[in-house]
Design brief:
Layout: E1 2-6, H1 17-28, E2 33-37, H2 44-54, E3 59-63, H3 79-90, E4 97-100, H4 102-106, H5 108-115, E5 119-121, H6 126-137, E6 148-152, E7 155-158, H7 178-185, E8 188-190, E9 193-194, H8 205-209, E10 214-215, H9 218-230, E11 235-238, H10 247-259, E12 267-273, H11 279-287, E13 290-298, H12 302-308, H13 314-326, E14 330-335, H14 344-357, E15 361-363, E16 368-369, H15 375-382, E17 392-394, E18 406-408, H16 417-425, E19 431-432, H17 441-444, H18 457-464, H19 471-480
Parallel strand pairs: 1-2, 1-3, 3-4, 4-5, 8-11, 11-12, 12-13, 13-14, 14-15, 15-19
Antiparallel strand pairs: 5-6, 6-7, 9-10, 16-18, 17-18
Length: about 475
Amino acid sequence: MLTLINTNTMIPAVSPIGLDYIAETVSKVGIKVDIVDLCLSDDPINSLKDYFANHTTGLVGVSFRNVDDCFWPSAKWFVPGLAETVRTIRNMTDAPIVVGGVGFSIFAQRIVEYTGADFGICGDGEQAIVSLFNELQKTKCFEKVDGLIWHRNGEMSSNPPAWNAQLSLPTNRDAIDNQTYFQKGGQCGLETKRGCNRKCIYCADPLAKGTTLRLRKPSEVADEAESLIAKGIDVLHLCDSEFNIPPNHAYAVCEEFKRRSVGKQLRWYTYMAVVPFDTALAKAMRNAGCVGIDFTGDSACPKMLKTYRQPHLKKDLASAVHLCRQNGIKVMIDLLLGGPGETALTAAETIDFIKKINPDCAGAPLGVRIYPNTEMAHLVAAEGPLETNPNIRRKYPGTVDFFRPTFYISAALGEQPAALIQDLIAGDKRFFGPVQEQTPEADVDNPSTDHNYNDNAELVEAVKKGARGAYWHILRELRSS
């Protein structure tokens, strides 16, 4: 028996598609699998107690999706909660515990050490957890398990992940209660590929999913979409890092959706790079059911785009919005304000230009989350001692540790950077602006002032009343009403 536990209790509820894929993969090879979904439990601790009081298992797999909320100034860190969950499970069963998931994979060894888990799986978990389960029953030759983190002779050992060139995933989506997630979360997810080969200085996706693009067959993606449609789910969010990288795969998925009339049965949203994006792709996406795109815009200032290593230009941002308007696609531009070299002038250039090109909405958070082993981390290290760096913001004492939520906000923006950005936004409701650090905690968590989706009561209430779609789109509609 393999027991899988979803620890992500963030609301609105987000369906754990990774556990769905893993559970289906495990079942196909004949391993019995149970899922304990703490997100759908009114009392997570008692749910764990009830389960382990009545079940014996050979391995407990704990899914960890988010290390923190990646949002300043809330800077909520979820790793201590994971450690508490691992301790709770440890007191209920003698079975070994393995942790995995996207958030876990960014800090794999650190999280295993911090939580006291027996194992961790960095990267894709579908085949790795099958291999680990089998080794536990046989020779315990853990060197054979791709991506495994484990204790050996008092030290931590780690195997490199296996990034299979051809990605194939189960399509049934029967292991998780996706219907309930749709009711409580307003959307469900689906992957068309994994990996990211872009060079953005700040992004942790290549650390968690690899730097090679691993594509699913469009027919398999469409099979999965149809499986969800059959369950009554008619709004999806594609969970790719950037749907249009590479563009030929995006076209192929859209063509398969169109051929099967998938787009007539559901609406879907996606993340995209600003380039490449042209008229043909915009039309193909709309014909396939796409109703909203969240573009990784970062900035409209050439200097900052170069710093972030973005290949697009200001004109490309304008073109992206124009193409979405022409094809009836809602458009969000996600900005990244406060990075290295950001000044009041560069921020003003970005915000003024975004106002001019008129997307439906724009995320304007302040602060770049710093992840280890990224170019951003190297740039910060080159600026001198971390503890005295005026650009670093954090909510914990002692030594600067990127394992914990640590943000970069250019000191050139002044002593009150959030107030500066809000002044530049000047009340424009298209912008989800930053929250000032001096704001009381009650206001920091007020979703009307930003678009931090974690524990967003306004979103939860909107979904309860029937709102469906990407959370940025729901929040924009609420502001417009």
